[in-house]
């Protein structure tokens, strides 16, 4: 029997289940659409059960990084559930307990973005760093933070996509896509906001479309706020929108313009290309982060 | 010989030196204006030397909470100095070494706002909390954070007064007082901004002056951003502007309006009066925080 770890990247659109020991040893991986909690969780359980049996595996522990909001407090009566999500059927869905029942192994549970941050810290571009941020900018915007070597949870967990940004309405009068906050970070920059503002899906807009300068400007403003608030050693930007690699140089330049020399650090000012970066693990950051969380539990 | 701890709250306007064992046992305290580094640091050293000698004290350790920006990294060649401050004479002033030379005791060093946060965690309104924020809103705006029980430093240290806020220029077209960022949190809400905008010092404005609603609105917007970013269990607001106690109910209400039900936590939503609060240690938070830092070093 081979010792292995399980990981689940539970997204609002799709679930990714993986059996691995690290990025160099990904044994099995399966993705399926997020339907009802019962069906999606059952499919995930079946994936692990099948491989445990057929491939003679010893699943040591499981890591789950999920969309939220979620209850992360182990002493809470609702630990391990997705709480007040607007996603139909998923409000108050218990996501940890079904796996505990099925496998009787230690289970780590965190937000999808904290999981991705953990993955980047263990195997990606943030190895050796104690303080860094991971953002996904895609169908939504979320942020995870590692502070003093540990994921930031706090009262609930951060919702970094929902900070309010300053909008120059003479240049951009778009009212924002967030149903809660209108022109917050997510409301101004997520994929659906781009599509809604310009009448075309983001990936269909050419590189010289004015959408990208505006997009980079808002993202840079958010980054400058997060630098002032959290003083990270590195910021990793992932997610569908950030597949537009040409955004990176724009965001870096504009972030420094927003900071305007106030935060004095050579490792940021003289090394901005290594300060705001794409994920080292690409789109595997989330699922490998879940594996890293599982490994952390037992090692 | 009596065992005691030393604390310094090093502000841009005044230094507060204190010898104490806690809030119930403050033995000696002296305040003097911040002039040149040489003169001000020498006065501080003399205060401790005098009492050590005359009152037969054994000074076990010293805590310094200071205005900044500062270098907090023990392995850095410039550890213990104030770095790029615009304050005349203080740029690159070494603030730790003179005390090391004079007393040969352990010295703890942090920002003034982290010191105040530490003080509130040990003796004030944040006892037992692992994640909380302390802000001073006065001649400037600064924020300190305790995350997972430890002060947040990161790359440099937070500069929470400099996040950019959204301004409705139809209501308030004030260009902001911050020389770096114009309308950042500090540029819109610090004492000098209030005086500049309304032509009168903040403490001369009556409680029904429209200044306060606007002030509370910007502070609430900042608080909502910090809640989304850091997910604190409590936020403490101190400093000269926050002496206007009537601001608190306004800020609490507007913060909930900005969050608009997005962050679901009963301990915030149903208990906002205990969530955004004045310092439990009043204007002694900084100096007692320095004492707490000194105690932490040796206990």
Q: What keyword list fits this structure?
A:
homodimer, 299 residues, alpha/beta, Nucleotidyltransferase, domain 5, five-stranded mixed sheet, 21% strand
Give the beta-strand count of chain A: 10
Can you tell me the number of structural domains of chain A?
A: 2
Give the strand order of the largest sheet of chain A, numbering strands 1, 2, ... along the chain: 3-2-1-4-5
User: Helix- and strand-based class of chain A?
Assistant: alpha/beta
CATH superfamily of the largest domain in chain A: ATPase, nucleotide binding domain
Supply the CATH class of the largest domain in chain A: Alpha Beta
Portion in beta strands of chain A: 15-25%
CATH architecture label of the largest domain in chain A: 2-Layer Sandwich
**Helix and strand pattern of chain A:** EEEHEHEHEEEHHHEHHEH
Greatest chain-chain interface? A-B, 47 and 47 residues
**Oligomeric organization of the protein chains:** homodimer
Mean pLDDT of chain A: 96
Separation of the first and last Cα atoms of chain A: 19 Å
State Rg of chain A.
Answer: 19 Å
Portion of residues within helices of chain A: 25-40%
Poorly predicted spans of chain A: none
Envelope shape of chain A: globular
What's the total helix number of chain A?
A: 9
Which fold name corresponds to the CATH topology of the largest domain in chain A? Nucleotidyltransferase, domain 5
């Amino acid at each position: 029997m081979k010792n292995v770890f399980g990981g689940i990247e539970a997204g609002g659109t799709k679930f990714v289940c993986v059996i691995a020991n690290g990025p160099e040893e990904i044994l099995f991986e399966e993705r399926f659409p997020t339907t009802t909690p019962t069906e999606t969780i059952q499919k995930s359980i079946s994936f692990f059960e099948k491989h445990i049996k057929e491939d003679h595996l010893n699943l040591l522990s499981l890591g789950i990084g999920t969309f939220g909001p979620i209850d992360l407090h182990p002493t809470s009566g609702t630990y391990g559930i997705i709480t007040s999500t607007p996603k139909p059927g998923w409000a108050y869905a218990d996501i940890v307990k079904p796996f505990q029942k099925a496998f009787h192994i230690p289970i780590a549970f965190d937000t999808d973005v904290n999981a991705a941050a953990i993955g980047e810290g263990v195997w990606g571009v943030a190895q050796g760093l104690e303080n860094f941020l991971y953002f996904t900018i895609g169908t939504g915007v979320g942020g995870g933070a590692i502070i003093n070597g540990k994921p930031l949870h706090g009262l609930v967990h951060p919702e970094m996509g929902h900070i309010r940004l300053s909008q120059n309405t003479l240049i951009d009068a778009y009212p924002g896509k967030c149903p809660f906050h209108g022109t917050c970070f997510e409301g101004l920059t997520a994929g659906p906001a781009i599509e809604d503002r310009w009448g075309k899906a983001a990936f269909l807009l050419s590189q010289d479309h004015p959408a990208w300068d505006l997009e980079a400007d808002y993202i840079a403003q958010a980054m400058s706020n997060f630098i002032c608030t959290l003083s990270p050693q590195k910021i990793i930007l992932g997610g569908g929108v950030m597949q537009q690699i040409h955004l990176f140089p724009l965001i870096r330049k504009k972030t420094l313009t927003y900071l305007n020399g106030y935060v004095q650090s050579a490792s940021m000012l003289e090394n901005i290309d290594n300060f705001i970066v794409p994920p080292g693990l690409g789109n595997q950051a989330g699922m490998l982060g879940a594996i890293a969380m599982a490994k952390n539990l037992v090692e």
